[in-house]
Write a structure and sequence with these properties.
Helix content: 40-55%
Radius of gyration: 17 Å
Order of helices and strands: HHHEEHHEHHEHHEH
Strand order of the largest sheet: 1-2-3-4-5
Mean pLDDT: 89
Shape: globular
Structural class: alpha/beta
Low-confidence stretches: none
Largest sheet: 5 strands, mixed
Oligomer: single chain
Length: 216
């Protein structure tokens, strides 16, 4: 009980310090985030593609491109933290909106990460500059939020990336790590099991022509 109370108090203090309620207000009212947050979003591209067959919001991210880009060092840690806060709070806003639209209780999202480009990040060693940032975001930001990802699919994962994945898996929450599945190519058949073609981006074999830019 004491541990739960301390965690709650820490989360409330975190939300006050980082003005999380202001971020939620901005998201719900479609207000533009600060310029550095928009820049971070262009440097680490992720989109909301729609919902799966269980009404869970679907996220696709160009994670491999982020690893290889060197972008992790182009913004300050504080700027990445605020950008990640916008990303997390959008999770909850999307879940809430989906529940309202579908009339079904929804409390999870599903996440799909494209690892294309990760080989070059290993060869140029830029990936090792990203991992400290990811650790920091998990420890300092994500630890104050409840687990909301129900399923994680990593695809276009080359064999050489297995060592890098082991490094990332080491600091993931064990519950989260158990939700992850890897594919060496684009698992269109698996995508179709989870969501309609209108949700899957066209470049992966679906019919969704949503704006899904390349990473800067």
């Amino acid at each position: 009980m004491e541990a739960s109370f301390q965690r709650l108090m820490a989360a409330l203090q975190f939300r006050k310090e980082y003005r999380s309620d202001v971020i939620v207000h901005n998201i719900w009212n479609n207000l533009s985030p600060p310029a550095h947050v928009q820049k971070c979003k262009a440097m680490r591209v992720a989109i909301w593609a729609g919902t799966d067959y269980n009404s869970r919001p679907v996220v696709f991210e160009r994670l491999g491109q982020f690893f290889s880009s060197g972008n992790a060092t182009l913004m300050t840690e504080e700027e990445w933290e605020e950008s990640y806060l916008y990303f997390l709070e959008t999770h909850f806003c999307r879940v809430r909106q989906t529940s309202m639209n579908s009339g079904v209780a929804v409390d999870r999202i599903v996440y799909f990460a494209d690892f294309s480009g990760v080989v070059s990040s290993i060869m140029n060693r830029k990936i090792w500059k990203v991992i400290p940032l990811l650790k920091r975001l998990v420890k300092k930001v994500e630890s104050h939020y409840p687990e909301i990802v129900d399923h994680i699919t990593l695809f276009n994962v080359p064999t050489i990336a297995s060592a890098a994945y082991k490094g990332v898996r080491g600091f993931l929450d064990p519950v989260t790590a158990d939700k992850i599945e890897l594919f060496s190519g684009v698992p269109l058949e698996r995508f179709n099991e989870l969501m309609g073609e209108n949700v899957i981006p066209k470049e992966y074999g679906g019919r969704n022509d949503c704006d899904y830019p390349q990473t800067l």
